[in-house]
Amino acid sequence: MRALIAGGGIALLITLLTTPAWIWLFRKLNWGQFVRDDGPETHHTKRGTPTMGGLVIIAGSVIGYFAGKLLNGETPSVTALLVLFMMVGLGLVGFIDDLLKVRNQRSLGLTGWTKIALQGLVAAAFAVLALQFPNARGLTPASTSISLFRDLPIDLFIWGSAIGTVLFIAWTYLLVASASNGVNIADGLDGLATGASIFAIGAYVVIGFWQFNQACATALEPNCYQVRDPLDIAVVAAAIVGACIGFLWWNTSPAQLFMGDTGSLALGGALAALAIVSRTELLLILIGGLFVIVTGSVVLQRGYFKLTKWRTGTGKRIFLMSPLHHHFELKGWQEITVVVRFWIIGGLSVAAGVGLFYAEWIYGL
Fold it and tell me: Residue 151, SS3?
């Protein structure tokens, strides 16, 4: 418990107090945000605002976690290290993408296929490693079964270890790509993705701590959780949340620093990793409900446009602009209004997810 509080608190202080220095450095390096000309006119004033602030979040999370464990005299767990591996790995992909954007002063960094390949490489490495390192009870950080509140009777290794490994890597990639791109798409307004990530990743502080209190430590008691290192899942999640809270102080409207793809891909990757190691993979759809909604708006917009263009020769749109938050901006909503209302939606989604997680333990849903 002390490591959890210390990790979150230290990460918060690091990002809260050091971000001004990062902002100064990024300005010196001319790492300014590129803004699309076809977006909302109010966004044109954001051109040149320092970006790649995800480096601050990643640094705060990593230092906060290790400092919290050190202060409590504990050894870092392999499960938490894998979560940080995913976060840093996808953060590196996002950093390369951001760097190309600011150097070329255009909205396109890495090509789509290159980004997919790099995300897949990190996801595959995580998947293979997560099935190693069994503890004394034979539990590995990840399970080969698809999970909801806990493992379901759907084992990907039913057709053998070779095919099962391929299926598990593909399943991991699907989760990682969905979560990381979902947070990336939501990162379009000051503080929106940061605040929503605080809610979603904060859910795993609660889930990990609850699983620790109800762990199958000595015997398979009714409704106990077979999860490796559940308390450390809560600790690393708390460190990430703390880092995001400190960063949000500078990222809220009007933002002085953007997280960029460096931060959005890193946070989405961490979110997917937390779902995998806590055995709540399908529950992520509800916990990350806001990210599902904004991503869905892009899919609907593009699909409807292509369909109507194919049928009538003229493409039509459902929304004034996608993702969905830009639609409401063009309808006249103030940016801060959109952000706060979307935070409410994100918070309600998380509350519903955690509520169902608890209800499953109570009633065995």
Answer: strand
Q: Which amino acid is at 337?
A: T
Taking only Cα atoms into account, the Rg of the chain, rounded to an integer number of angstroms, comes to 20
User: Per residue in 175-211, pLDDT tens?
Assistant: 999 999 999 999 989 999 999 999 999 999 999 999 9
Q: How does DSSP classify residue 255?
A: P
Measured between alpha carbons, how far is 83 from 172 in angstroms, rounded to an integer? 13
Tell me the sheet residues that pair with 145: 155
Task: Return the DSSP state at 74.
Answer: -
257: left (phi over 0), alpha (psi -120 to 50) or beta: beta
pLDDT, residue 84, reads 98
How many CB atoms lie under 10 A from the CB of residue 158?
12
Closest CA to 202 of 4, 24, 3, 47: 4
Query: Is omega for the bond preceding 254 within 30 degrees of 0, making it cis?
Result: yes
> What are 155's strand-pairing partners?
145
8 A C-beta contact, residue 133 and residue 82: no
Which phi and psi angles does 147 have, rounded to 5°? Answer: -125, 160
Return the beta strands (E) in 73-178 as ranges.
145-147, 151-155
Nearest by Cα to 273 from 115, 121, 82 = 82
Provide the b/e sequence for 204-238 (b: ≥16 CB within 10 Å). bbbbbbbbbebbeeeeeeeebbbbbbbbbbbbbbb
Q: Is 303 exposed, middle or buried (0-12, 13-18, 19+ CB in 10 A)?
A: exposed
Of 95, 6, 92, 107, the C-alpha closest to 47 is 107
Residue 156 contacts residue 276 (beta carbons within 8 Å) = no
Domain ranges of the chain: 2-287
Q: What residues pair up with 215 in beta bridges, in sequence order?
A: 225
Task: Report how far residue 85's alpha carbon sits from residue 88's, in angstroms, rounded to the nearest whole number.
Answer: 5
Quote the tokens at residue 79.
Answer: 């499960």
pLDDT, tens digit, for every residue of 88-104?
A: 999 999 999 999 988 87
